Amino acid sequence: MKKSKKALSLLCALMMLSASLPLSVAAATKEAQVNQPTQHAIAQAKPAAAKKAAVPLTKANVEKFTKEFFANPDIKKMVAGAVVTVVKGNEVLLEEGYGYADKEKKKPVDSEETLFYIGSVSKVFTATAVLQLVEQGKIDLNADITKYLGDVKIKNDTGSPVTVKDLLTHTSGVEHADTGFTIDAELDSKPYYSMKDELLKNTFRIVNQPGKVYSYDNFASQLQGYIVEQVTGQKFEDYAEKHIFDVLDMENTSYVLEEDDVDQLASSYDWKGTKLKPAVFKPTVLPEGSMTSTGEDMANYMLAVLNGGSFEGERFLNKDSLSKMLTPQVSIHPNVPNMTYGFEFYTHHLYNGHNFVVKGGNIPGFASQVTFLPDKKVGVFISDNHGSNIRDIYMSAFMDHFYPDERPAPTYLQPTQQQLTKFEGRYKNLRMGFDVTEIKANSDGSLTVKDGIGSTVYRQVDPLLFVSEDGLPLAFKEVDGRVKYIYTLLGFVTWSEKLEASVSYTDVAADHPYRKYIDGLSPLVAIGEEGSNVLQPTKEMTRAEFVHVLLELFDLGYRHYDKPAFNDVEGHKYVDAINEAVRIKVIDAKTVKDGKFEPDRIIERQEAAAWMYNFLKEMPAMPKPPVKLAGTTDEWAKEGVQYLATHGYYGPEVIKNQDGSIDFLSKKGLKRQEAAAILYKLVYPNHSEGK
Question: Does the global pTM surpass 0.85?
Answer without folding.
Answer: yes
